[in-house]
Amino acid sequence: MLALERLAYFLFITRANINNRLTRYGQLLSEIEAGIALDQDSALQLSEDEAWELFETLDGSVYENQRTRKPILLKLDEVLSDGTAHYEHELITIEHVLPQNPAEGSEWLELFPDDEFRENWVHSLANLVLLSRYKNPAASNFDFDYKKTKYFADDGDSPFVLTNQVRDTSEWTPEVLATRQYDLMGKLAAYWQLDEVFKDYVDS
After folding, report:
1. Which tens digit of pLDDT belongs to each residue from 48-106?
2. Secondary structure of residue 46 in the 3-state scheme
3. Residue 15: how many CB atoms within 10 A of its CB?
4. 12: exposed, middle or buried (C-beta count within 10 Å: 0-12, 13-18, 19+)?
5. Are 55 and 200 spatial neighbours (Cβ–Cβ below 8 Å)?
6. What is the secondary structure of 91-120 as a DSSP string?
7. Phi, psi angle pair for 184, to nearest 5°
8. Segments in the chain forming alpha helices (H)
9. Rounded Cα distance, 135 and 171, in Å
10. Going by C-beta distance under 8 Å and a sequence separation of 6 or more, which residues neighbour residue 77?
11. What is the CB-side half-sphere exposure of residue 4 using CA atoms within 13 A?
């Protein structure tokens, strides 16, 4: 059931504590046992405030939460693949396109010269891709053209949609990241049937 999956992801992604999770699931079980309709007022559904909280979390530094970052990216990749993705690789790692520590004199510092602005993007949903191998730390700082044609191309045995999208992108600028961020969030919002709230979030 999509609504139950949506609730579970909300509680997981927003890091609801154990007491809140037990209370919410307890309310839901009570409603089911009582035969109460699981409509908009049910514990199964997300309120507008909860949907907003979900979007704010996804719009933040996703990578910095070690527990949730890979499940979020795998779910997103599955949604982008229309449910046809199969993840049988023994190793799946996360790579930053815009590096965490760009080298002096690199194109990255020309495109993202302000440290605070760059930090706001580096751990974002839009800047992360999946690989099916160990990362080479030295390769992480490659300029974009080399990185996408050499580094990401080496991952051809695991065609993650997120990674393929980067290969098909001609540049990696703040504008590209901003567009990509809301596009990816919009895909999750549509999948979880939260489109209307997401429109309000984007317009705010």
Report:
1. 999 999 999 999 999 999 999 999 999 999 999 976 666 666 788 898 999 999 988 89
2. coil
3. 11
4. middle
5. no
6. --EEEESS-SSPPTT-HHHHHS--HHHHHH
7. -65, -45
8. 2-13, 18-33, 48-58, 69-80, 107-111, 115-122, 144-146, 161-167, 174-191, 195-203
9. 22
10. 85, 130, 160, 161, 162
11. 6
Quick check: 15 pLDDT over 60? yes
Closest by CA to 71, choosing from 20, 9, 154, 142, is: 9
pTM of the model: 0.91
Tokens of 6: 């949506």
DSSP state of 148: I
The total of other beta-carbon atoms located within 10 Å of residue 179's CB is 12
How far apart are alpha carbons 71 and 93 in whole angstroms?
Answer: 11
**β-pairing verdict for 93-96 and 128-131:** antiparallel
